[in-house]
UniProtKB/TrEMBL annotation:
Organism: Massilia litorea
PROSITE patterns assigned: ABC_TRANSPORTER_2
Keywords (A to Z) from UniProt: ATP-binding, Cell membrane, Membrane, Nucleotide-binding, Transport
One Gene Ontology CC term in the entry: membrane
SUPFAM superfamilies registered for this protein in UniProt: P-loop containing nucleoside triphosphate hydrolases
GO molecular function: ABC-type transporter activity; ATP binding; ATP hydrolysis activity
Protein name listed in UniProt: ABC transporter ATP-binding protein
Domain ABC transporter: 23-245
Family label: Belongs to the ABC transporter superfamily.
Taxonomic superkingdom: Bacteria
Organism lineage: Bacteria, Pseudomonadati, Pseudomonadota, Betaproteobacteria, Burkholderiales
Length: 247
């Protein structure tokens, strides 16, 4: 069983090399992005998220909607544990799998096989688990003997194949994604899409940020619309998509 409970969550980014003198003391909304303001000491602060309260349970497939800078990536990073809330509480129960940056932890000097261990460790897999899965990951990547060559000898597509093969080998209870991953040439793309669907089906909770109406309607049963870091609407995917994208 997985669950996520946010209560009045805010995320502030203090900006140390900007002057707060031209800013008002309270937070103001820029045309796009979060709210820019100054703290009591005159330091500039970007409030990326504010007053977020929601609960996600098993079966929730949530699309995060919102314009550029609305706070979608910040919310995904908060869920993945990269950021902590500046205010409020975020309770997350369940194993998290993040496909937000599948190339994170990849070392170009190391071989493909070594990188599987590196990336796998970042995904929370043990060495023994990775050893068991190694043949399957290598076979999925279709890299053949290149798997024992350093990554600097790979093309960008080969690099992505490897990152994808290892990143999608986990079966997390909570899956975080930034748009739908689409990697490789035509043949691999087909295989990758099937694997993504399988992954999404197997997860208890999915949270995916997207700018695509079709993706949200096909994949999600709920959507949260963020605007300037606040929740503008939270409800069934069809209703929120209709309000956000227009009918
Ligand atoms: N590291 C950071 N330092 C300062 N401000 C940041 C940082 N990361 C994000 N922000 C600010 O937080 C706000 C939300 O950004 P975020 O990247 O979460 O938006 P988004 O909805 O994912 O946008 P997009 O659709 O463009 O990817 C923006 O105003 C941005 O300027």
């Amino acid at each position: 069983m997985a669950s996520i409970e946010f209560k009045d969550v805010a995320v502030d980014f203090p900006i140390y090399n900007a002057s707060g003198r031209s800013l008002k003391k309270r937070l103001i909304s820029a045309a796009t992005g979060g709210q820019i303001g100054a703290d009591p000491l005159g330091r500039v602060v970007v409030r990326a998220l504010e007053g977020l309260s929601f609960t996600l349970r098993d079966g929730d497939r949530v699309g995060l909607l919102g314009h550029n800078g609305a706070g979608k990536s910040t919310l995904l990073r908060l869920l993945s544990g990269v950021y902590m809330p500046s205010h409020g509480s975020a309770r997350i129960e369940g194993e998290i799998g993040s496909l937000i940056d599948i190339s994170l932890g990849i070392d170009t000097e190391a071989t493909g096989r070594e990188n599987i261990y590196l990336r796998g460790a970042l995904l929370g897999m043990s060495k023994a688990e990775l050893k068991d899965r190694m043949d399957e990951i290598v076979a999925f990547s279709e890299l053949g003997d290149f798997i024992d060559m350093p990554l600097r000898t790979y093309s960008s597509g080969m690099h992505l194949r490897l990152a994808f093969a290892v990143s999608t080998t986990v079966r997390p209870e909570i899956l975080l994604m930034d748009e739908w991953l689409s990697v490789g040439d035509q043949g691999f793309k087909h295989k990758a899409e099937a694997r993504m669907r399988e992954l999404v089906q197997a997860t208890n909770i999915l949270v995916i940020a997207s700018h695509t109406r079709e993706l949200v309607l096909e994949t999600c049963n709920r959507a949260i619309w963020l605007e300037h870091g606040k929740i503008r609407m939270d409800g069934p995917a069809e209703d929120v998509a209709a309000a956000y994208f227009g009918n």
